[in-house]
Design goal:
The structure holds 2 protein chains of 2 kinds. Chain A has helices at residues 6-12, 18-34, 63-71, 114-121, 123-131, 164-170, 181-186, 215-229, 244-257, 275-278, 292-302, 322-332, 347-355, 358-364, 375-378, 393-399, 417-426; strands spanning 39-41, 46-48, 80-82, 102-103, 106-110, 188-190, 204-208, 234-237, 286-290, 312-320, 341-345, 367-371, 387-390, 411-414. By secondary structure, chain A is an alpha/beta fold. Chain A starts with 5 loop residues before the first helix and ends in an 8-residue tail after the last helix. The chains are: A alpha/beta, B mainly beta. At the A-B interface, helix 2, helix 9 and helix 16 of A face strand 2, strand 5, strand 8 and helix 1 of B.
């Protein structure tokens, strides 16, 4: 049993009602399982997978209970955002009309069917959540559109493996995969792992022999780093300074092959200006070298195809930011896709992309802009697609898990965004590691 | 008399169970790379690709990937217990969903000792595992 303040004990005893009690019971169990000795008061931001009321089925409560809570005037204690589109179908929030994909293989549940879409959006829940203050960003990368980000040292409750290192490493705020109704509502989280200063220092130095600088290199490097360090905190040296797109690629790549909640790039990430600071003044437990052989092996692992005939191209894992959309529009202007090209971004950028003229460019090129979800979250690819091209290590590695049977395997061509655009325009894969 | 080895560790989720070990030499990944209805990993290239874990003591080095790692505990097919060398919030969430005995932070790495087919008594209540080597 963790240490609890008198106020926390009162909540646990049910003196503030059923839902607060359930939330506190959940947090106490997180402490017991993780070994956390106490809770920490959150002063940053949070997000969670919606509309689920708990990360654990043992602490879920009903729609009716939520309504009672909302009617009593309850709010989330911290600024709270919605993670991706609503569970369990995770439908595209925008652009769903083009989404000719069955939800988890069920032909009765086509995402482009207006009735299914309406049902899948589960808006009755979000009417309540919005009254509690939730900003329904519906993105695994809510930080892309949130105009309010946590600042250095603030304790948060985020929930997405690829977003957690953005909070920790890139903003210098602190989170585990804490995002849940309970943490956002009570404004508390179990005090362990990345909430604690001592755990945030690097223990492994990862040296890159290649000057990692292109988007593809960052994606592949991220995958190689995750494989190398697992759950350890690395300090990365020998790379260029990543831009925003590259940070997103690094973060999602590392959290496909590993579980890297925190890392340092001296001179780039805010918590350590030098290698020594990143290591907390200690020697690294080990030094790992990522050389040409390791990068090539990662690239080859991420490719999974025998045919170069591409049926579909998917871009936007993690969701594309506004600069990605601008550059993509520039590359597609006046072109015509031979195979379907789906572009995924965050819902709050859809109208921005429309106003800036990108949506029209995409449509004219035969590409579809969608928001709030991804192929893997929707459980597959459209019928007839047997070879998918992607520019994301994460999407490459997860999408094939939906097709484990020999008679129904999905092939994946993985490479740079330019390789993918070329495949969309020609139907052929010509990507290679250089 | 079969060899027995005892290793002390930290209880994540309490309980006691004795079952056959299934050892994953590679870190496990959830989300779409786990099928909880069938009870196996669907990760391409994984040594346990489509190897059923239902009712086994799942022994693995560390969790990785998305928050969907908790699929390993969400059943209906699920391991009888979890034994892992290193953890992070992914394994915490998994233990909380599974509510089966779960242990980590051992004084000796269980991956060096346990082989698939060994019988493992996971006594999370008292903080140890007892391994009976297969013949």
């Amino acid at each position: 049993m963790p240490y609890l303040t008198d106020d926390e004990k009162r909540i646990l005893q049910g003196e503030e009602g059923y839902v607060p009690q359930l939330c506190m019971q959940y947090l106490v169990e997180v402490c017991e399982v993780s070994g956390a000795e106490r809770l920490i008061d959150l002063d940053g931001t949070g997000d969670f997978h919606t509309p689920t009321t708990s990360m654990s089925p043992f602490y879920e409560f009903s729609f009716e209970e939520l309504k009672k809570l909302v009617d009593s005037g309850a709010h989330f204690k911290i600024p709270t955002f919605a993670n991706k589109a609503p569970f369990f179908a995770v439908p595209p929030v925008d652009g769903w009309e083009d989404c000719n994909l069955c939800s988890y293989g069920d032909p009765e549940k086509m995402h482009c069917n207006p009735e299914f879409h309406r049902e899948a959006m589960r808006d009755e829940w979000f009417e309540l959540y919005r009254k509690m203050g939730m900003m329904t960003t519906h993105s695994c990368a809510s930080y892309l559109t949130a105009s309010y980000l946590p600042t250095m040292g603030q304790h948060c409750a985020w929930n997405e493996s690829s977003a957690v290192p953005y909070c920790n490493a890139n903003l210098g705020a602190r989170t585990n995969i804490d995002g849940s109704f309970a943490t956002c509502f009570l404004g508390k989280a179990a005090y362990y792992d990345m909430h604690i200063t001592e755990n945030r220092y690097a223990t492994v130095e990862v040296r890159s022999e290649r000057m990692i600088s292109s988007d593809l290199e960052w994606d592949v490097f991220g995958f190689a780093v995750g494989e190398e360090v697992g759950v350890k905190v690395p300090v990365l040296t020998g790379t260029a300074k990543p831009n925003m797109t590259q940070i997103m690629k690094l973060n999602s790549g590392m959290n496909t092959s590993g579980a890297v909640r925190m890392y340092h790039i001296p001179g780039s990430t805010p918590e350590a200006h030098t290698l020594e600071e990143a290591l907390g003044g200690r020697k690294p437990q080990r030094v790992a070298i990522i050389g040409e052989a390791e990068l090539k092996r990662a690239y080859e692992t991420l490719n999974f195809h025998t045919s170069d005939d591409v049926d579909m191209v998917y871009l936007g894992c993690p969701h594309l930011n506004i600069v990605d959309l601008m550059l993509l529009a520039r590359k597609l202007e006046g072109k015509k896709c031979r195979v379907p090209l789906w572009i995924m971004s965050t819902p709050w950028l859809f109208d921005v992309a429309k106003k800036l003229g990108y949506l029209k460019i995409f449509k004219d090129a035969g590409a579809s802009l969608m928001t709030g979800t991804c192929l893997a979250a929707m459980g597959g690819v459209p019928g007839g697609v047997r070879n998918l091209a992607v520019d994301s290590a994460k999407q490459s590695y997860y999408i094939t898990g939906c097709y484990p049977d020999d008679d129904n395997r999905l092939q994946v061509c993985y490479g740079s965004q330019d390789d993918c655009i070329d495949a969309a325009l020609t139907g052929k894969w010509r990507g290679e590691w250089r | 008399m079969a060899e027995k080895i005892i290793i002390k560790g930290r209880c994540e989720y309490p309980g006691k169970v004795r079952a056959e070990a299934l050892v994953s030499p590679k870190p496990l990944e959830g989300f779409t790379n786990c099928n909880p209805r069938k009870g196996y990993t669907t990760e391409r290239n994984h040594p346990l690709f489509k190897v059923p874990y239902n009712g086994k003591v799942m022994v693995y080095p560390l969790p990785r990937g998305s928050g969907g790692f908790m699929m390993y505990g969400s059943g209906p097919m699920k391991p009888a217990a979890f034994v892992h060398t290193e953890g992070c919030p992914l394994s915490v969430a998994c233990a909380m969903v599974a509510h089966v005995p779960s242990m980590t932070d051992f004084e000796r790495d269980p991956m060096e000792v346990i082989e698939t087919g060994d019988i493992v008594f996971v006594n999370a209540d008292e903080g140890y595992i007892e391994i009976t080597k297969k013949d």
